[in-house]
């Protein structure tokens, strides 16, 4: 839910407000860029937004539940700070984004529109292209490991440790028996081979009549 000050809401309702979008981007290395689609610099809430953001209109999705919001955007975010080299090296990937809509005649009046991050920024035919991913999407990001009998490493990667050159043409089925007998790599097995399976969970009382109760 967006909270709009009464004075700003009144100006919007009367048609007197002249608004523009302002973008504040913060990279993981600490570099920050504040730009606006307006044709002159604007100081809003202590931040100076420089002109040069010709971003195609994006529909910022909001939902009352925990569904993540995604929106694709593109445009010529023309600014000397955004270089081809930085785009190619991925410095802008994952940058935090805050978007506000401000009244350029009354920059003290503004409303927060959207917060999220840039995902997979690249250079397109008309400028940069990126997907804006809302903060809710972080709730979908997997954390930790899945407990399973099979190994979740990839043959030859750092977690596996097997030198694939010593086993030409060999594949791995992620099973403990294969890891031990074929590769001799039991100490690096990344699964839980002794984890009880579904058969054990569904197993009923023993035939001897032991019902599991205390004797």
UniProtKB/TrEMBL annotation:
InterPro entries: Phage_phiJL001_Gp84, Phage_phiJL001_Gp84_C. This is Bacteriophage phiJL001 Gp84 C-terminal domain-containing protein. It comes from Hyphomonas pacifica. Residues 170-199 form the Bacteriophage phiJL001 Gp84 C-terminal domain. Pfam families: Phage_BR0599, Phage_phiJL001_Gp84_N.
